[in-house]
Amino acid sequence: MADDEQREPEEEFREMLRRMLSGNGDIDPQQLAGAAGLPTDPALIASLMSQLQSAMQYRGDGIDLDAAKDRASAIAREDQRALDPATSNALMQAFQVAALWLDEVTDVAELTSAPRLLTREQWAALTTPTWAQLAEPVASSIANALTEVIDQQAPEELRSMLGDPSRMMRSLGGALFALQLGQVIGQLSSEVVSGGDVGIPLLDEQEAALVPQNVDAFGEGLDIPVDEVRIYLAVRELAHARLFRSARWLRLHLITSITEYARGLHIDADAVQDLAMRFDPSNAEELQEAMASGALIPPKTPEQEAALARLETMLALVEGWVDTVTAEATARLPHADAIAEMVRRRRATGGPAESALGALVGLELRPRRLREAATMWQRLASDLGRAQRDALWSHPDLVPTSEDIDEPGALVARLRDPGTEDDAIDRAIEELLDDESGDRPHERSDGSADEGPGASGR
Hints:
The protein is mainly α. The chain is built from 21 helices and four strands. The N and C termini lie far apart (about 95 Å).
């Protein structure tokens, strides 16, 4: 009797999988939603089933972008308010003031396109492609793990019935991942206040945008005039967008760094198999917790830790520069310090949707060394001037390093007198070229010339 009870969940899951993949019989939508870790509200299940059936037809590689976008938009619409003219006018005026104040404190050029105001649904739809690009390596790793498990564990009758169960399981896993990603993006749309709120440019590199409904929610309970909050957040968003427009290499560099880091994440097939063996379809909390907590993602390797450290340094440099420029531009706002502290607290903790997204893609995007990076940028501005500070973004080789964040004084000294370092680099390059050619004279330590291996009569 005990053995039968232990086998019962496995048999129930196997039967559900047979019906789902073969198309024979009805599927319990509530059971499927629970297995995916998604809400089981009956009002949402019909839409979920339609999206899943569509996603199951997807035969491309990576995440089904349409399925993720549809799910994100559906969630974002739930508590959405329409843009009202009065709030829109006030925010556009805030952007105008922000642009003027930024011109006073930075040489980074203005944007070529006007700022935008977005509903939550618009934010979700516009940012889903970037999120999908960042999450695709993890989605592929999960699909590979599911495929490996089904190849090893699928009953013979299931193989003969379906022909290629691993292909079907890959489609199923990709569909569920796309829907989960859309679910989290839709939830995140209620937390963010702008296009650059999470540190990376989710919109086009020349776009700045605010989400008015969330801007209003940010200011609630602060006992600060709403106009000050709007101007402050507009300055931050414009500074972020201007930086990525000016440093054209930066957006690609960040996204490439994130995706390369994520490609090093390999889901442990044994963990997936163990979870599947213990999975009870009538109680989906364990599967939901495993996906939401990132339990299926193994510990980071030393190489990944090093890559993550480099990525966090760059994110800290970006956010630190934005913080510094924003503080300078908003110095005339009476409550600028209080708003800045609220931004720091919010950024340090993040929201529940952001935490879920971090677990889903295996990466938290909040840099830990932000305060130190901001201090470094402030030191550069005070000692060398804003123009030289901002010029460091013109090329990736000029951007400060982690060591520079630790020792801003040494960076200032090096920038004040770059000749010695440049001469040493030039000499090293010249010596390297000489060694490769083998036919140019080298200078001895005593100053005499060595004519090289081709010399004779010595």
